[in-house]
Amino acid sequence: MTGHVLEGIGELARGVPPESTQQAVGYPSLFLLVVLGSLVPVVPTGAVVSSAAVVAIHQSVPPLSLLVVFGVASFAAFLGDIALYWLGRRGLSSKNGSRWLAQLQGRAAPERLAQARTRLDEHGVAVLVLSRLIPAGRIPVMLACLLSHLPMRRFARGDAPAVLAWSGAYALIGILGGSLFTRPWEGVAAAIALTVLLSTAPALWRRTRARREAHGEATG
Predict the structure, then answer these.
(1) How far apart are CA 131 and CA 126, in angstroms?
(2) Looking only at Cα atoms, what is the longest distance across the chain?
(3) Is residue 55 within 8 Å of 22, Cβ to Cβ?
(4) Coil, strand or helix: which one is 40?
(5) Which of 31, 45, 78 is nearest to 198 (CA)?
(6) Among 74, 119, 138, 145, which one is least packed by beta carbons within 10 Å?
(7) What residues does the VTT domain cover (predicted)?
(8) How far apart are CA 126 and CA 112, in angstroms?
């Protein structure tokens, strides 16, 4: 029985695609997933970048692989942001709006949008960098830029350093997660868990604080 199990494990190990094949499939997949996640909030793009970084540090030339991951993720995020912003601008100029603009407005709470507009007035496009690093901070700031009729060129100038900072931060999470484990899948699991925790913790904290405030007002 044990011999059959070991034989099966050996077959799985031999079935792992070579590094060149992993790269040929992995980099285009990374690009497509990040672009898709920038347009539609169904793909956890931060976890995708962190997972790609984990795999990269287990390649034969980790610095080069990490640099490619960083470059592909940054370029894909930039293209996704620019495309979404362009679609939003079309919605503003259209008489009936657009589903993309409606989607942005539906994903930005009024109080967060008001805060984003205030920060945009105070700091300009530099606020885009912080919005990319804060979980769920990208959409309110992008919508604030749209409602302020910020030109595409100016938005792009602010978004470029924002996506670089975002890619670097999540790649660093992947490096830390991957360096703690010898097996890539363990590092990927750790990186995904950490990115999910970072993305959900602020929302949970806001809900907890709102409930406490509501409870205090009720008892007061």
Answers:
(1) 9
(2) 70
(3) yes
(4) coil
(5) 45
(6) 119
(7) 65-175
(8) 17
